[in-house]
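Quick look at the format.
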Amino acid sequence: MDFDAGDSINTSRGGWNFKDIDTKEFENHVAKSVPNYYEGHEYIRFLSDYFIHNDSVIYDIGCSTGNLLSKLSNYHKDKHNLKFIGIEPSLNFEDLFNKTTNSSEINHNFELITTEIQDVVLEKSDMIISYYTIQFIPPRYRQKIINNIYECLNWGGSFFFFEKIRGNDARFQDMLNLAYLEYKKTKGYSNNEIMNKMLSLKGRLEPYTTKENNLFLERAGFKDICTISRNLCFEGKIAIK
């Protein structure tokens, strides 16, 4: 049975799939669902000055529309021979990615990889972004992915790691979850749409706690880790090799 999850998105219990989503509605839906979604883009842009230089390679894992890579390209328009690589296995984003990244007159290189991240061989790079992506990847692959990210970064390179998180214990999890549901009400979603979205994410979205995400990074080899954004159950970190 199909559910109405709001913003013209129809899905089913445990059936959330980015391959089925209407790409025209995607960023509107995510921006309403994730507090400070676009502000997080800005934080990454501002901090990218420390990591993007001439000849840099930059990855965005789960790049969807390519919007963030396009913003970074425009922000670094005076730098030369930059290579922006998006990883997005949902093929319905391909046309929009190409349209977004081709709209710029800046002479930077863009590439889209449509393979699952756990199967991608990453090239040496200065900056890698995972913007609310790894939370949708089966847990059995996550340590391998973050290990590979660490290995392919140049020394001094950065990993921007944004994820939905769980509370540290049951009490805080209840508090964060209920506050988030009320937040979604303020964005115009009905009770049914909120419940339907929750049901559609069963078995699809598996967030971890802050501590567990830090352990992923530390096991991979990262020692310098800093939280740069936090709003309810959504958190962004930067880890530097």
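Next, a different chain entirely:
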Amino acid sequence: MDENVVQERMPLIGDTAPAFRAMTTMGKVNFPEDYKGSWVVLFSHPADFTPVCTTEFITFTRMTEDFARLNTKLIGLSIDSLHSHLAWAKSIEEIDWKGEGKVKLSFPIIADISMSVAKKYGMLQTVASTQTVRAVFIIDPESMIRAILYYPMSTGRNMDEILRIIQSLQLHDAENVSTGANWRPGEPAVMGAPLTLAEAEARLQSDDPRVHPLTCYLTVKDPE
């Protein structure tokens, strides 16, 4: 990384999302205040008018309603100018990716020429420090960072996985359960391990038809 780029401490899971004010393709934003009460996917891309980023923005747009059903809003960012964002967004409208039809971007893109937001969120991690990496921050309605993903510049993001993480977090918040490997909505969840021998014994003898102990420490719970 360029020695002249000052990187702030990267936010961690459990931190309050760093606050900022910025211009976007849909007007001014006061973040995270303007998004209180909603889940948010804040994501950065390396640069406008680049191939992988273009496929990601088209895919995010096609899935906007899927995220909206989870009370989740999308907001993108790169250190390009507002004029560059607007021109790129307009050009994307002419692309038919995978033959699934053209789209019009449905979420704002933050203009961050000063790199101030990128620095707050640890999005500058490459030798070419004038490009943000593919970072994803999943932020809950209380403005807490709940998940962080980083992708290499050559690899496009898996939007289905981002959606799945939000579904898992929302299930955890609603039922105080976790989700196992490769969990998908509608599949059984995983209960927390008992903390005492008495709790373990009670778990093994549970008559709850949704609860299925596999061992004293691993119990699956059917969806409602």
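The helical segments are 51-62, 64-68, 82-92, 116-120, 159-175, 197-204.

See the schema section for token definitions.
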